[in-house]
Design goal:
Elements: E1 2-9, H1 16-29, E2 33-38, H2 52-63, E3 69-71, H3 74-78, H4 84-94, E4 98-105, H5 106-111, H6 118-124, E5 126-130, E6 143-146, H7 155-163, H8 174-183
Parallel strand pairs: 1-2, 1-4, 2-3, 4-5, 5-6
Amino acid sequence: MKRVGILGGTFDPPHLGHLLIAEEVRISLQLEEIWFIPTYTPPHKNESKTSAMDRRNMLELAIRSNTYFKLNTMEMERTGKSYTIDTIKTLKNQHPEHEFFFIIGADMVEYLPHWHKIEELMELIQFVGVQRSGYKLNTTYPIMEVDIPLIDISSSMLRGRLRKQEPAKYIVPDEVYRYIREKRLYENR
């Protein structure tokens, strides 16, 4: 059985925190791959600040140097709001020989009681929680915890820096930073 980690999100933009979480969980749980699944529109947010195509392109650039990282665009292809339950059911149907681990930050661990069909989802997949600054991993749900080096980076903080034309070196991979600059993303937003 292939062991695969799932890391979903808006990735607006993808940053080194995303990559660190994925790699640390992969190593800790001895996963064979991490699948990054960017959402078209997350159910808990209004909409992304950047087009789905730009976010997909940035994510491809961010993960291409790690052979264990794969891009899965199923939620983007679905368009509209995506619920994790639908994604997990589809993945399990398409890949019955895989064991999936759904990676979430402590901010999402705190939000779990509000997730769509959370009880059913807990029966379908093992959740893996990682620490995030300002949040706790306290929950009544059966979450597997993985300790990671704590880096206080968020996409919203990064977008703020980019809007002010502050440097983002060592926050995003160089290829992603070049893409952002070439496309003039996050300016005047």
